[in-house]
Amino acid sequence: MSGDDPVDAYLAELRAKLGRRWRRRRLSWEAEGHLREAVARRVATGTTPAQAAAEAIACFGTALEVASALDWAQPAWRRRGRGRVAAAAFAVVMAAIAIAVVFVAGPGGQTAGTEHGAASPAPPVAENPVRGKEVANGAVDELSWSAAAYQSDRGVCIDIVFSGSTSLVGGGCGFGVPDARTVGVGRTYLADPNRTWIFGPATSSTDTVSLGLDDGRALSVKTAELPATEAREGLSVYVTSIPGNVSVTSVEGRDGNGGSLGRIVAELP
Amino acid sequence: MKGHLDLLVLAILRSGPLHGYALVEALRARSGGVFDLPEGTVYPALYRLERAGVLRSGWAAGVGRRRRRVYELTPLGFETLEARTEEWHELSVGIASVLDAAS
Q1: pTM (two decimals)
Q2: Quick one: which of A173, A120, A124, A176 has its CA closest to A144?
Q3: Residue B48: which domain range?
């Protein structure tokens, strides 16, 4: 390359800012390869060499930006202060989310004129406009909710949406029916402190799921069928809402005649 | 952008090994031009991810006599990508709820 090659000039500036440690030498080497290829591709499309070099360097970032990014990539003990700031910012975001969920769901968390679990699931009625198939619905404080389920490469996924909103308020993925069992169980991770959604998969022969609650009651939930995909067999899912101060202690799958298909002891977080 | 770059890099490399230039091109193309970051800042991110054990790299033949460093996911990288994708899904759900409640 000639002495006035802009790429050479840029690389010299970058090396001066990077220093001599091995990782910096490696970055310098990779930067040169990157810039040479970027220039060659631009020239191949008709751009003049000078213009191609200017564009490639501009896209790569200033030497100061790149050197600063490498400094930011230093071992964690050198960035401890930044880590604390990031952790604090994350905590603020999560707190805002929790407050918003309480606001959306309402402070009461009780379904008018009903007892535990009265926001009972219904059989599948329609394709959910968000994604997946609607498998259950109910109401909390006059706000209707619906649950949609679908199968993915992460297992069964459940999304819970309030009526009139296209925004999800909770749900989860990764559920499967454990081996030698008929049911699995999970709960919303964005639970309203006064209301929790319980959901999980079941074998396709499961007609209802009986949830044992720690207040001594049992709640029967109708399952909904989730069709098979190319990669996964069909199965059933169940979703229901219970008061936040009640926990599920057991989950039992039942067939259409009420016979037990299997039972697990719930170990919810 | 800086906080999400690691996840985006892992997601791009999920489909196979790439060198830095190709990774940047893929990132720009798949995001429809939204993630048009200074290209040079990708390399420090790659080094950081390699040091964390989620990527590994090796030299491969490049254009002319130049060799190129090619990056690929490690088994830990695949696990990390899955976990962080899940975290992102949860976070995006929460943010959408906040925005929806405010509108």
Answers
A1: 0.47
A2: A120
A3: 5-102
